[in-house]
Amino acid sequence: MLFEIVNLCINFFEALLFYYLISHCLTVKYHDFRKYLLILADFSVITLCNYCPGLSNVNVSVILILCVEVLVTFLMTQNTVIEKIFWGSCSSILSLIVEYIAMYTSSLIVGANVSETLSSTVPHYTSVLIYLLLLGTCVFITVQIKQKNLAFPVYVLIPLFIITLLGIFALHALQWCSIELKKDYNEMALGQFQSYLTLIVFAFLCIFVLLYILLFIIGGIHQRNLLYRQEKELYQIEQSHYQSLHKTYQLLRIWKHDYKNHLQTLSQILSEQDSAAATDYMHQLLDDFSQTATIVDTGNAALDAIVSLKKYEAENMNIRFDYKLFLPEASQIPLTDVALSSLLGNILNNAIEASGKTEDPFIRLEIKTVKASLLIAVENSSTGQYRYDSSRRFISTKKEADHGIGLQRIQEIVKDANGIYEAKALPDTFCTTVILPLKN
Predict the structure, then answer these.
(1) What's the domain range around 333?
(2) Count of domains forming the chain
(3) Cβ-based neighbours of 234, under 8 Å, separated by 6 or more
(4) Domain boundary among 205, 223, 241
(5) 292 belongs to a structural domain
(6) Which SS3 state, helix, strand or coil, does residue 431 take?
(7) Does residue 352 form part of some domain?
(8) pLDDT per residue as tens digits for the range 344-399
(9) Which of 44, 102, 350, 440 has its CA 20 to 30 A from that of 169?
(10) Counting beta carbons within 10 angstroms of the beta carbon of residue 4, is it exposed (0 to 12), middle (13 to 18) or buried (19 or more)?
(11) Whole-prediction pTM value?
Protein backbone atom coordinates (compact mmCIF):
# COMPACT_ATOMS: atom_id res chain seq x y z
CA MET A 1 0.00 0.00 0.00
CA LEU A 2 2.78 2.39 0.91
CA PHE A 3 4.53 1.56 -2.37
CA GLU A 4 1.39 2.50 -4.36
CA ILE A 5 0.94 5.79 -2.48
CA VAL A 6 4.57 6.71 -3.10
CA ASN A 7 4.15 6.03 -6.83
CA LEU A 8 1.01 8.20 -6.99
CA CYS A 9 2.82 11.02 -5.21
CA ILE A 10 5.69 10.75 -7.69
CA ASN A 11 3.22 10.86 -10.60
CA PHE A 12 1.51 13.97 -9.21
CA PHE A 13 4.87 15.67 -8.56
CA GLU A 14 5.92 14.98 -12.17
CA ALA A 15 2.61 16.44 -13.42
CA LEU A 16 3.13 19.58 -11.31
CA LEU A 17 6.64 20.03 -12.71
CA PHE A 18 5.29 19.56 -16.24
CA TYR A 19 2.76 22.35 -15.62
CA TYR A 20 5.43 24.59 -14.06
CA LEU A 21 7.73 24.06 -17.04
CA ILE A 22 5.07 24.69 -19.70
CA SER A 23 3.46 27.68 -17.97
CA HIS A 24 6.82 29.46 -17.54
CA CYS A 25 8.41 28.61 -20.89
CA LEU A 26 5.39 28.93 -23.20
CA THR A 27 2.27 31.11 -23.46
CA VAL A 28 -0.72 29.24 -22.06
CA LYS A 29 -3.98 29.98 -23.89
CA TYR A 30 -6.26 29.73 -20.89
CA HIS A 31 -6.03 31.40 -17.49
CA ASP A 32 -9.06 29.85 -15.79
CA PHE A 33 -9.64 26.31 -14.48
CA ARG A 34 -8.77 24.88 -17.91
CA LYS A 35 -5.08 25.51 -17.38
CA TYR A 36 -5.08 22.81 -14.70
CA LEU A 37 -6.00 20.29 -17.39
CA LEU A 38 -2.25 20.22 -18.05
CA ILE A 39 -1.71 18.67 -14.62
CA LEU A 40 -4.72 16.34 -14.82
CA ALA A 41 -3.86 15.02 -18.30
CA ASP A 42 -0.22 14.39 -17.45
CA PHE A 43 -1.03 12.75 -14.09
CA SER A 44 -3.66 10.49 -15.71
CA VAL A 45 -1.35 9.27 -18.47
CA ILE A 46 1.59 8.61 -16.13
CA THR A 47 -0.64 6.68 -13.72
CA LEU A 48 -2.19 4.72 -16.59
CA CYS A 49 1.24 3.69 -17.84
CA ASN A 50 2.24 2.52 -14.35
CA TYR A 51 -0.84 0.39 -13.68
CA CYS A 52 -2.10 -0.78 -17.08
CA PRO A 53 -0.72 -4.29 -17.88
CA GLY A 54 -0.65 -3.59 -21.61
CA LEU A 55 1.66 -0.62 -21.07
CA SER A 56 4.17 -2.34 -18.82
CA ASN A 57 6.83 -2.18 -21.51
CA VAL A 58 9.11 0.73 -20.63
CA ASN A 59 9.70 1.93 -24.18
CA VAL A 60 5.97 1.94 -24.98
CA SER A 61 5.08 3.89 -21.84
CA VAL A 62 7.86 6.43 -22.47
CA ILE A 63 6.69 7.06 -26.03
CA LEU A 64 3.06 7.33 -24.91
CA ILE A 65 3.79 9.84 -22.13
CA LEU A 66 6.01 11.90 -24.41
CA CYS A 67 3.40 12.00 -27.20
CA VAL A 68 0.57 12.92 -24.82
CA GLU A 69 2.60 15.72 -23.22
CA VAL A 70 3.46 17.14 -26.66
CA LEU A 71 -0.21 16.87 -27.70
CA VAL A 72 -1.41 18.62 -24.53
CA THR A 73 1.20 21.34 -25.12
CA PHE A 74 -0.14 21.87 -28.65
CA LEU A 75 -3.70 22.19 -27.35
CA MET A 76 -2.97 24.44 -24.38
CA THR A 77 -0.32 26.87 -25.67
CA GLN A 78 -0.01 29.39 -28.51
CA ASN A 79 3.64 29.29 -29.56
CA THR A 80 5.45 28.07 -32.65
CA VAL A 81 5.43 24.39 -33.61
CA ILE A 82 9.12 23.97 -32.81
CA GLU A 83 8.69 25.54 -29.38
CA LYS A 84 5.70 23.31 -28.60
CA ILE A 85 7.53 20.12 -29.61
CA PHE A 86 10.72 21.03 -27.77
CA TRP A 87 9.20 22.19 -24.49
CA GLY A 88 6.38 19.65 -24.61
CA SER A 89 8.90 16.81 -24.70
CA CYS A 90 11.39 18.48 -22.36
CA SER A 91 9.65 17.24 -19.19
CA SER A 92 9.75 13.57 -20.29
CA ILE A 93 13.37 13.85 -21.39
CA LEU A 94 14.46 15.40 -18.11
CA SER A 95 12.51 12.75 -16.15
CA LEU A 96 14.21 9.87 -17.97
CA ILE A 97 17.70 11.30 -17.65
CA VAL A 98 17.22 12.04 -13.95
CA GLU A 99 15.71 8.59 -13.39
CA TYR A 100 18.89 6.90 -14.61
CA ILE A 101 21.09 9.19 -12.55
CA ALA A 102 18.97 8.49 -9.45
CA MET A 103 19.01 4.70 -9.94
CA TYR A 104 22.74 4.38 -10.41
CA THR A 105 23.49 6.92 -7.68
CA SER A 106 21.32 5.07 -5.16
CA SER A 107 22.82 1.71 -6.16
CA LEU A 108 26.29 3.10 -5.45
CA ILE A 109 25.18 4.62 -2.13
CA VAL A 110 23.43 1.56 -0.66
CA GLY A 111 25.53 -1.05 -2.47
CA ALA A 112 22.59 -2.61 -4.32
CA ASN A 113 22.20 -3.56 -7.97
CA VAL A 114 19.92 -1.73 -10.40
CA SER A 115 17.08 -4.28 -10.24
CA GLU A 116 16.73 -3.79 -6.48
CA THR A 117 16.22 -0.06 -6.94
CA LEU A 118 13.08 -0.87 -8.95
CA SER A 119 11.39 -2.88 -6.22
CA SER A 120 9.77 -1.76 -2.96
CA THR A 121 12.98 -1.89 -0.93
CA VAL A 122 15.23 0.62 0.85
CA PRO A 123 17.29 1.19 -2.36
CA HIS A 124 14.06 2.04 -4.15
CA TYR A 125 13.04 4.75 -1.67
CA THR A 126 16.57 6.13 -1.73
CA SER A 127 16.33 6.29 -5.50
CA VAL A 128 12.94 8.03 -5.26
CA LEU A 129 14.26 10.76 -2.96
CA ILE A 130 17.26 11.38 -5.22
CA TYR A 131 14.97 11.37 -8.27
CA LEU A 132 12.53 13.93 -6.86
CA LEU A 133 15.31 16.24 -5.70
CA LEU A 134 17.22 16.11 -8.99
CA LEU A 135 14.11 16.41 -11.18
CA GLY A 136 12.82 19.47 -9.33
CA THR A 137 16.28 21.07 -9.52
CA CYS A 138 16.67 20.33 -13.25
CA VAL A 139 13.23 21.73 -14.13
CA PHE A 140 13.85 24.86 -12.07
CA ILE A 141 17.26 25.43 -13.70
CA THR A 142 15.77 24.85 -17.15
CA VAL A 143 13.09 27.49 -16.54
CA GLN A 144 15.67 29.96 -15.26
CA ILE A 145 17.82 29.42 -18.33
CA LYS A 146 14.80 29.89 -20.60
CA GLN A 147 13.89 33.18 -18.96
CA LYS A 148 17.34 34.52 -19.85
CA ASN A 149 16.18 34.20 -23.47
CA LEU A 150 18.99 32.05 -24.80
CA ALA A 151 18.08 31.85 -28.46
CA PHE A 152 18.54 28.46 -30.15
CA PRO A 153 18.14 28.33 -33.93
CA VAL A 154 15.96 25.56 -35.35
CA TYR A 155 18.95 23.74 -36.85
CA VAL A 156 20.35 23.32 -33.31
CA LEU A 157 17.09 22.39 -31.59
CA ILE A 158 16.23 19.55 -34.00
CA PRO A 159 19.57 17.66 -33.65
CA LEU A 160 19.43 18.18 -29.88
CA PHE A 161 15.97 16.62 -29.76
CA ILE A 162 16.97 13.63 -31.93
CA ILE A 163 20.25 12.95 -30.10
CA THR A 164 18.52 13.14 -26.73
CA LEU A 165 15.85 10.62 -27.77
CA LEU A 166 18.47 8.23 -29.15
CA GLY A 167 20.48 8.49 -25.96
CA ILE A 168 17.44 7.83 -23.80
CA PHE A 169 16.47 4.69 -25.67
CA ALA A 170 20.10 3.51 -25.55
CA LEU A 171 20.04 3.91 -21.78
CA HIS A 172 16.80 1.95 -21.66
CA ALA A 173 18.42 -0.86 -23.61
CA LEU A 174 21.41 -0.94 -21.29
CA GLN A 175 19.18 -1.09 -18.24
CA TRP A 176 17.16 -3.94 -19.73
CA CYS A 177 20.34 -5.89 -20.50
CA SER A 178 21.60 -5.34 -16.97
CA ILE A 179 18.41 -6.79 -15.45
CA GLU A 180 17.90 -9.67 -17.88
CA LEU A 181 21.48 -10.93 -17.88
CA LYS A 182 21.27 -11.51 -14.14
CA LYS A 183 19.18 -14.61 -14.87
CA ASP A 184 21.89 -16.36 -16.91
CA TYR A 185 25.28 -15.14 -15.68
CA ASN A 186 27.11 -16.23 -12.55
CA GLU A 187 27.76 -13.68 -9.83
CA MET A 188 31.32 -12.81 -10.88
CA ALA A 189 30.51 -12.41 -14.56
CA LEU A 190 27.41 -10.43 -13.70
CA GLY A 191 29.38 -8.07 -11.46
CA GLN A 192 31.93 -7.42 -14.19
CA PHE A 193 29.21 -6.90 -16.77
CA GLN A 194 27.29 -4.50 -14.56
CA SER A 195 30.47 -2.53 -13.86
CA TYR A 196 31.03 -2.31 -17.60
CA LEU A 197 27.46 -1.15 -18.16
CA THR A 198 27.81 1.42 -15.39
CA LEU A 199 30.83 2.92 -17.12
CA ILE A 200 28.88 3.08 -20.37
CA VAL A 201 25.92 4.76 -18.69
CA PHE A 202 28.10 7.37 -17.00
CA ALA A 203 29.87 7.95 -20.31
CA PHE A 204 26.49 8.60 -21.90
CA LEU A 205 25.57 10.97 -19.11
CA CYS A 206 28.83 12.86 -19.49
CA ILE A 207 28.15 13.20 -23.20
CA PHE A 208 24.69 14.60 -22.44
CA VAL A 209 26.11 17.11 -19.98
CA LEU A 210 28.86 18.25 -22.34
CA LEU A 211 26.40 18.45 -25.21
CA TYR A 212 24.04 20.66 -23.25
CA ILE A 213 26.89 22.90 -22.09
CA LEU A 214 28.06 23.27 -25.68
CA LEU A 215 24.60 24.04 -26.94
CA PHE A 216 23.99 26.67 -24.27
CA ILE A 217 27.28 28.30 -25.23
CA ILE A 218 26.17 28.30 -28.86
CA GLY A 219 22.80 29.68 -27.79
CA GLY A 220 24.47 32.52 -25.90
CA ILE A 221 26.62 33.39 -28.91
CA HIS A 222 23.59 33.27 -31.19
CA GLN A 223 21.63 35.53 -28.80
CA ARG A 224 24.45 38.08 -28.76
CA ASN A 225 24.49 38.04 -32.55
CA LEU A 226 20.74 38.71 -32.56
CA LEU A 227 21.23 41.64 -30.19
CA TYR A 228 24.00 43.06 -32.38
CA ARG A 229 21.76 42.76 -35.43
CA GLN A 230 18.88 44.47 -33.63
CA GLU A 231 21.17 47.28 -32.49
CA LYS A 232 22.32 47.74 -36.08
CA GLU A 233 18.72 47.86 -37.29
CA LEU A 234 17.84 50.35 -34.55
CA TYR A 235 20.78 52.51 -35.60
CA GLN A 236 19.61 52.44 -39.22
CA ILE A 237 16.05 53.33 -38.14
CA GLU A 238 17.31 56.26 -36.06
CA GLN A 239 19.50 57.42 -38.94
CA SER A 240 16.44 57.35 -41.19
CA HIS A 241 14.49 59.31 -38.56
CA TYR A 242 17.26 61.86 -38.34
CA GLN A 243 17.48 62.32 -42.11
CA SER A 244 13.69 62.70 -42.38
CA LEU A 245 13.69 65.18 -39.51
CA HIS A 246 16.52 67.15 -41.02
CA LYS A 247 14.76 67.35 -44.37
CA THR A 248 11.45 68.38 -42.76
CA TYR A 249 13.14 70.94 -40.54
CA GLN A 250 14.96 72.48 -43.49
CA LEU A 251 11.71 72.73 -45.45
CA LEU A 252 10.04 74.39 -42.46
CA ARG A 253 12.88 76.91 -42.11
CA ILE A 254 12.73 77.75 -45.82
CA TRP A 255 8.95 78.17 -45.73
CA LYS A 256 9.06 80.36 -42.63
CA HIS A 257 11.87 82.41 -44.13
CA ASP A 258 9.82 83.03 -47.27
CA TYR A 259 6.56 83.56 -45.36
CA LYS A 260 7.01 87.33 -45.05
CA ASN A 261 7.90 87.68 -48.73
CA HIS A 262 4.82 85.68 -49.70
CA LEU A 263 2.57 87.94 -47.64
CA GLN A 264 4.13 91.08 -49.17
CA THR A 265 3.64 89.69 -52.69
CA LEU A 266 0.05 88.70 -51.95
CA SER A 267 -0.66 92.12 -50.43
CA GLN A 268 0.69 93.83 -53.55
CA ILE A 269 -1.49 91.67 -55.82
CA LEU A 270 -4.60 92.42 -53.76
CA SER A 271 -3.82 96.13 -53.73
CA GLU A 272 -4.01 95.99 -57.51
CA GLN A 273 -7.43 94.34 -57.14
CA ASP A 274 -6.35 91.35 -59.22
CA SER A 275 -8.34 88.67 -57.42
CA ALA A 276 -7.64 85.98 -60.05
CA ALA A 277 -3.88 86.39 -59.68
CA ALA A 278 -4.22 86.42 -55.87
CA THR A 279 -6.24 83.20 -55.94
CA ASP A 280 -3.72 81.50 -58.21
CA TYR A 281 -0.87 82.61 -55.96
CA MET A 282 -2.67 81.24 -52.89
CA HIS A 283 -3.12 77.86 -54.61
CA GLN A 284 0.60 77.73 -55.35
CA LEU A 285 1.37 78.50 -51.70
CA LEU A 286 -0.98 75.76 -50.49
CA ASP A 287 0.63 73.19 -52.81
CA ASP A 288 4.06 74.17 -51.54
CA PHE A 289 2.82 74.09 -47.96
CA SER A 290 1.47 70.51 -48.27
CA GLN A 291 4.98 69.28 -49.10
CA THR A 292 6.23 70.43 -45.70
CA ALA A 293 3.33 68.79 -43.83
CA THR A 294 1.32 70.51 -41.14
CA ILE A 295 3.56 72.90 -39.24
CA VAL A 296 3.69 72.02 -35.53
CA ASP A 297 5.24 74.91 -33.68
CA THR A 298 5.99 74.35 -29.99
CA GLY A 299 9.44 75.94 -29.95
CA ASN A 300 11.19 72.58 -29.73
CA ALA A 301 12.73 71.99 -33.16
CA ALA A 302 13.17 68.21 -32.81
CA LEU A 303 9.63 67.62 -31.55
CA ASP A 304 8.11 70.00 -34.11
CA ALA A 305 9.85 68.19 -36.93
CA ILE A 306 9.02 64.61 -35.87
CA VAL A 307 5.35 65.35 -35.07
CA SER A 308 4.92 67.33 -38.30
CA LEU A 309 6.45 64.50 -40.30
CA LYS A 310 4.40 61.72 -38.67
CA LYS A 311 1.19 63.74 -38.95
CA TYR A 312 1.87 64.20 -42.65
CA GLU A 313 2.55 60.47 -43.10
CA ALA A 314 -0.60 59.51 -41.19
CA GLU A 315 -2.87 61.89 -43.10
CA ASN A 316 -1.48 60.59 -46.41
CA MET A 317 -2.74 57.14 -45.27
CA ASN A 318 -6.17 58.62 -44.40
CA ILE A 319 -5.48 58.28 -40.67
CA ARG A 320 -7.01 60.98 -38.47
CA PHE A 321 -4.22 62.55 -36.41
CA ASP A 322 -5.13 64.73 -33.42
CA TYR A 323 -2.61 66.26 -31.06
CA LYS A 324 -2.34 68.45 -27.96
CA LEU A 325 1.16 69.64 -27.08
CA PHE A 326 2.02 71.59 -23.92
CA LEU A 327 5.76 71.44 -23.37
CA PRO A 328 7.86 72.63 -20.44
CA GLU A 329 11.03 74.65 -20.83
CA ALA A 330 13.55 72.96 -23.12
CA SER A 331 16.06 72.75 -20.27
CA GLN A 332 13.60 70.64 -18.25
CA ILE A 333 13.06 67.93 -20.86
CA PRO A 334 15.06 64.89 -19.66
CA LEU A 335 15.91 63.66 -23.17
CA THR A 336 18.32 64.83 -25.85
CA ASP A 337 16.84 65.85 -29.19
CA VAL A 338 18.00 62.55 -30.72
CA ALA A 339 16.47 60.46 -27.92
CA LEU A 340 13.22 62.47 -28.00
CA SER A 341 12.97 62.05 -31.78
CA SER A 342 13.66 58.33 -31.53
CA LEU A 343 11.11 57.89 -28.73
CA LEU A 344 8.30 59.74 -30.49
CA GLY A 345 9.29 58.35 -33.88
CA ASN A 346 9.04 54.72 -32.73
CA ILE A 347 5.79 55.26 -30.80
CA LEU A 348 4.14 57.05 -33.74
CA ASN A 349 5.52 54.56 -36.27
CA ASN A 350 3.90 51.71 -34.33
CA ALA A 351 0.67 53.70 -34.05
CA ILE A 352 0.58 54.46 -37.79
CA GLU A 353 1.27 50.84 -38.71
CA ALA A 354 -1.35 49.45 -36.31
CA SER A 355 -4.10 51.98 -37.06
CA GLY A 356 -3.55 51.66 -40.80
CA LYS A 357 -4.98 48.11 -40.61
CA THR A 358 -8.31 49.23 -39.07
CA GLU A 359 -11.52 50.43 -40.71
CA ASP A 360 -11.69 53.73 -38.78
CA PRO A 361 -8.03 54.66 -38.24
CA PHE A 362 -7.10 57.37 -35.79
CA ILE A 363 -4.17 58.53 -33.66
CA ARG A 364 -4.36 60.82 -30.64
CA LEU A 365 -1.14 62.35 -29.30
CA GLU A 366 -0.96 64.31 -26.08
CA ILE A 367 2.16 65.72 -24.44
CA LYS A 368 1.91 67.80 -21.27
CA THR A 369 3.46 68.35 -17.85
CA VAL A 370 1.89 66.67 -14.85
CA LYS A 371 3.38 68.01 -11.63
CA ALA A 372 7.12 67.32 -11.98
CA SER A 373 6.81 64.91 -14.90
CA LEU A 374 6.45 64.97 -18.67
CA LEU A 375 3.50 62.85 -19.86
CA ILE A 376 3.47 61.43 -23.38
CA ALA A 377 0.25 59.59 -24.24
CA VAL A 378 -0.58 58.04 -27.62
CA GLU A 379 -3.82 56.24 -28.40
CA ASN A 380 -4.50 54.57 -31.74
CA SER A 381 -7.09 52.29 -33.29
CA SER A 382 -6.18 48.59 -33.34
CA THR A 383 -7.34 45.25 -34.73
CA GLY A 384 -6.93 43.64 -31.28
CA GLN A 385 -4.33 41.09 -32.49
CA TYR A 386 -1.29 41.14 -30.19
CA ARG A 387 1.68 38.96 -29.27
CA TYR A 388 2.67 38.27 -25.64
CA ASP A 389 5.59 36.60 -23.91
CA SER A 390 5.29 33.82 -21.31
CA SER A 391 4.64 36.44 -18.58
CA ARG A 392 1.69 37.89 -20.53
CA ARG A 393 3.61 41.06 -21.31
CA PHE A 394 2.92 42.75 -24.64
CA ILE A 395 5.63 42.14 -27.27
CA SER A 396 4.36 43.27 -30.64
CA THR A 397 1.56 43.14 -33.20
CA LYS A 398 3.95 41.63 -35.77
CA LYS A 399 4.74 37.97 -36.43
CA GLU A 400 8.10 38.53 -38.13
CA ALA A 401 11.34 37.32 -36.49
CA ASP A 402 12.48 40.89 -35.82
CA HIS A 403 9.24 41.96 -34.17
CA GLY A 404 9.31 44.35 -31.22
CA ILE A 405 12.56 46.19 -32.08
CA GLY A 406 10.89 49.61 -31.92
CA LEU A 407 9.22 48.69 -28.63
CA GLN A 408 12.55 47.57 -27.22
CA ARG A 409 14.11 50.90 -28.17
CA ILE A 410 11.24 52.81 -26.52
CA GLN A 411 11.73 50.88 -23.29
CA GLU A 412 15.50 51.50 -23.34
CA ILE A 413 15.07 55.27 -23.75
CA VAL A 414 12.47 55.43 -20.97
CA LYS A 415 14.64 53.33 -18.65
CA ASP A 416 17.71 55.51 -19.27
CA ALA A 417 15.63 58.57 -18.29
CA ASN A 418 14.36 56.84 -15.10
CA GLY A 419 10.83 57.01 -16.49
CA ILE A 420 7.79 54.76 -16.60
CA TYR A 421 6.47 52.99 -19.70
CA GLU A 422 3.03 51.42 -19.93
CA ALA A 423 1.30 49.73 -22.88
CA LYS A 424 -2.37 48.86 -22.63
CA ALA A 425 -3.68 46.53 -25.35
CA LEU A 426 -7.47 46.76 -25.68
CA PRO A 427 -9.77 45.04 -28.20
CA ASP A 428 -10.24 48.17 -30.37
CA THR A 429 -7.48 50.54 -29.25
CA PHE A 430 -3.89 50.50 -28.09
CA CYS A 431 -2.64 53.04 -25.55
CA THR A 432 0.99 53.94 -24.93
CA THR A 433 1.89 56.05 -21.89
CA VAL A 434 5.34 57.36 -21.01
CA ILE A 435 6.06 59.38 -17.86
CA LEU A 436 9.47 61.05 -17.60
CA PRO A 437 10.72 63.03 -14.57
CA LEU A 438 11.57 66.60 -15.49
CA LYS A 439 15.02 68.00 -14.81
CA ASN A 440 15.30 70.24 -11.72
Answers:
(1) 298-437
(2) 2
(3) 405, 408, 409
(4) 223
(5) no
(6) strand
(7) yes
(8) 888 998 899 889 888 899 999 999 998 889 999 999 998 877 766 555 555 555 54
(9) 44
(10) exposed
(11) 0.44
